[in-house]
Design goal:
mainly alpha
């Protein structure tokens, strides 16, 4: 499993960001912010079937036309 992007911008971190406690940041996180801003996300999970993947492909192709 993989998740990318700036996790501390997720709503579950709202209270921790307000208090400044419960997590630590190493570096500027500029790459994680870029991933969140400039990436097209597709929701997937281990139970994806060929039928579900084909449906996603169709919807994406239709949307790009």
């Amino acid at each position: 499993m993989l998740f990318a992007g700036n996790l501390i911008k997720h709503p579950c971190f709202d209270e921790m960001r307000k208090s400044g406690e419960g997590y630590r940041v190493v570096g500027s996180l500029e790459n994680t912010d870029r991933i969140m801003k400039d990436t097209f996300w597709l929701g997937v999970y281990p139970g994806m079937t060929d039928e579900k993947i084909d449906y996603m492909i169709k919807i994406i192709r239709d949307s790009l036309k």
